[in-house]
Write a structure and sequence with these properties.
The structure holds two protein chains of two kinds.
Chain A (H helix, E strand, L loop, with lengths): L16 E5 L3 H12 L3 E5 L5 H8 L4 E3 L13 E4 L4 H13 L3 E4 L12 E5 L2 E5 L5 H17 L14 E5 L10 H8 L3 E4 L16 E4 L7 H17 L4 E5 L9 H10 L4 E4 L4 H8 L12 E6 L13 H6 L3 E5 L5 H10 L7 E6 L7 E6 L3 H7 L6 E5 L2 H8 L3
Parallel strand pairs in A: 1-2, 1-4, 2-3, 4-5, 8-11, 8-12, 9-10, 9-11, 13-14
Antiparallel strand pairs in A: 6-7, 14-17, 15-16, 15-17
Helix pairs in contact in A: 6-7
Chain B lengths: L2 E5 L10 H9 L2 E4 L5 H4 L6 E4 L11 H13 L4 E5 L9 H10 L4 E4 L4 H8 L12 E6 L12 H7 L2 E5 L5 H10 L7 E6 L7 E6 L12 E5 L16
Parallel strand pairs in B: 1-4, 1-5, 2-3, 2-4, 6-7
Antiparallel strand pairs in B: 7-10, 8-9, 8-10
Classes of the chains: A alpha/beta, B alpha/beta.
The complex binds S-adenosylmethionine (2 copies).
One S-adenosylmethionine binds next to helix 8 and strand 17 of chain A.
Chain lengths: 407, 241
Amino acid sequence: MSVEQHYLVGLDLVGRRVVVVGGGTVAQRRLPRLVASGAAVEVIAPHVTPAVQAMADAGELTWHARPYEDGDLDGAWYAITCTQLTEVNAAVAAEAERHRIFCVRSDAGTEGSAVTPAVGEHDGLLVGVLSGGQPRRSAAVRDGVLSALRTGAVLDRPELGRLAGVALVGGGPGDPELITVRGRRLLASADVVVTDRLGPRELLDELPPHVEVVDAAKIPYGRAASQDVINSTLIEHAKAGKFVVRLKGGDSYLFGRGFEELIACAEAGVPVTVVPGVTSAFGVPAMAGVPVTHRGVAHEVVVVSGHVAPDDERSLVDWPALGRLTGTIVLMMAVERIRAFAEVLCANGRPGDTPVAVIQEGTMRTERVLRTSLARVAEDVTAHEIRPPAIIVIGPVAALSDELITE
Amino acid sequence: MTVHLVGAGPGDPGLLTCRAAELLGSAEVVVYDRPSMADILALAGTGDKRCVGKSGSRPAWPQAEVNQLLVDLGRAGREVVRLKAGDPFVVSRGGEEALALAGAGVPFEVVPGISAAIAAPALAGIPVMVRQIATTLTVVAGNEDPEYRQRIDWSAVAAVGGTVVVLTGRSALRGIAEELLAAGMAADTPVTAVSAASRAHQRRVTGTLAALPDPRMRPPVTFVIGAVATLDLLEGSDAHP
Ligand SMILES: C[S@@+](CC[C@H](N)C(=O)[O-])C[C@H]1O[C@@H](n2cnc3c(N)ncnc32)[C@H](O)[C@@H]1O
Ligand SMILES: C[S@@+](CC[C@H](N)C(=O)[O-])C[C@H]1O[C@@H](n2cnc3c(N)ncnc32)[C@H](O)[C@@H]1O
C-alpha cells in the first residue's frame, strides 16, 4: 500500500477497548498517548517493561500476563501488535482483518491496516505526520512544526490577529532570537508595529506585507515632542481597531519610556499588555562573557543611565555614592559622557585600575568589545571610536571575561 | 555540540526567549534546578532531564558537582541545556559554571534570559525605572553567603537610592531593612514583595522599610524598595492573577 492511500484521521477512543499485543519498548512508546486519549487499553504480553508495569500498577491500563490467543481482539475497536515474533504479529493482524478492526503492525507497517503517525503536542494541539514508511522524515517534520509553534514562527491561534489595543513588547538587545516566545507571537499578529532604532529590527523583514511599520526613530521632532507623537500614534491606531505592537529594544521599563506610553494609553482608554524583554543592561554583557554578578566578586549590580552629565541639574543620580560601591556598575547611554562619569567615580573612591568592558552593538553581528580600565576608558572609547548603542560595565566582573573567551 | 547556559526567565514558558525554546526542543540533556519548572521542561520533549537543585528531601548538588556534570556531559559531546532561572548571570552561579567549562576547554554558549529582578516587579505592575522617580536600579543578592559576609556596602546602596531590588532576600529582609534605615533611608520608603511572578498564584504585598510586608509568602519572592514600589500599573485590569 502506498502512502497516498492512507487516510489520516482522529479516533475518539474514550472508553473503547484497544488491544496492544506486546509489552516491550515499542508498546511503551505508544501506550502513554493511547491512555491519554481515554481508551480502555489492554496489554497482552507474557512480559512487559518496568514502565508498562508501572502504568498497569497505576490502573491506567489492564495487563494480561500471557501470550496472545485468537479471540483476544473480541470487542476491540483498534489494535496494535508489536511483539518481536513475526508470526504472532501476523496472526493478530489476520484476526483484526477478519473482524474489521484497524490494526497497526509495528514490524511491517505496510501489512497492517493502519499506521501510527509521528505525533507531537503543543498547547492542546496535536500534530501528526505520515510519510509512508519513513519514520525519520515524519519525526523531523513533526519536530520542525512543533518548534515553529513554540517559537511563534507559526501561529496556532489566528484569532490572536484580532487582538485589540497595544502590546508593549520588549524585543531584547538586538539578536532576533532573544525576543520572547510571547513577544514573537504578538508581533506576528500585529496590524501596526511601532519600532525604535534599537532592538531586533531584523524581525520587521518577516512581517506580512499588510502590516504597517511606523519607525519612531524617524519622527522628525524634538525628543520630548516625539514621545507625544509616539503616544498618539499608538492610541489612534488602536482606536481604529488595529492591534498595535510597540516593539522596543531590551525591556520596556528600563529607560524605555514604557511607563509613559502605558499611562498615555490607559488614560485614552486603550487596553495595554506589557511583555517583558531581555534588557541590554544584563543581556549584552552576558553574551559578551561578562557576568554582571559573580559569587565572591560582585553580589550587587547597579544600572545607571548616562543620558545627563553628573553635574547636570536634571540628574537624579548620586554619583559620589556610586563611586563607593564595590559591585558592578552598568552604564547605559553613557558613551558621549564617559569621561565625566569615570572621573567622578574615581574621585569618590573607585580605583582607577577597576576593569571596564565596553560592548557596542551587543548580541549583533556588528558587536565590538573593548576591555580597559576606569582610568583609561575615556581615552580608549575615543581612540577606538566606540559609538552608541553601547553598554559600559565597570567592576571586577569585567575582567572575568578574559577567562571566558573559549574560541 | 556544546553546553548552552540558558536563562529560563521567571517561569512562564511564553517568557522564554525564542532561542531558549529552540534549544530546549533539541536538547539531549537538560540540567535544571527547580522541579516547579515543569511547564518549561515539557518543551524539552524526550531529552533526558536531570534535577540538580533541591528536590523533596534531597539537598541541592554542591556547585562543584554541577560544574563537573556539565563538563562531563560537554566532553561526551552531548547537546546540553543548563537551564537557569531568570538570567544565568544575575544573582546566579552561571558565571562559575561558565568558568568551569572554559577551564575544561568545553565549548559553551550563554543565552540571556529575563531576570526576575525586572520581570517580577513588571508582572506585578511595577516599572523598576521611571524618569523623574527612579533613574538607577540596584539589584542585590539578599541572602547571607557564609563565605562572603559583608560583601555589600548598604550605606552606599542607600545613598544611591533609586530602585533597589533584592533577590533571594526572604529571610534576610529584616536585616537589610535595618541596614538601609541605619544608613539614612527614609522609614516610609515603600517596599513591595512579589511572590511567584508569572505563576497562577502570583501575589504582591506592599509595606514600608519600617513596617515590612509580611514575608510569609510562597517562594520565590522578589522585593522592590523605593518610590516605584507603590505603583500598580495593573490596578483594575484583569492582568493581575
Ligand atoms: C534608551 S536605552 C533603552 C534600553 C532598553 N530599554 C533596554 O532595556 O535595553 C538605550 C541604551 O541601551 C543600550 N543598548 C541597547 N541595546 C544595545 C545593544 N544591542 N548593545 C549595546 N547597548 C545597547 C545602550 O546603552 C543604549 O544607549
Ligand atoms: C538564586 S536567585 C536567581 C535569580 C535569577 N538568576 C534571575 O535572574 O531571575 C532566585 C531569586 O530570584 C527571585 N525570583 C526568581 N523567580 C521569581 C519569580 N517567578 N517571582 C518572584 N521572584 C523570583 C527570588 O528573589 C529568588 O529568591
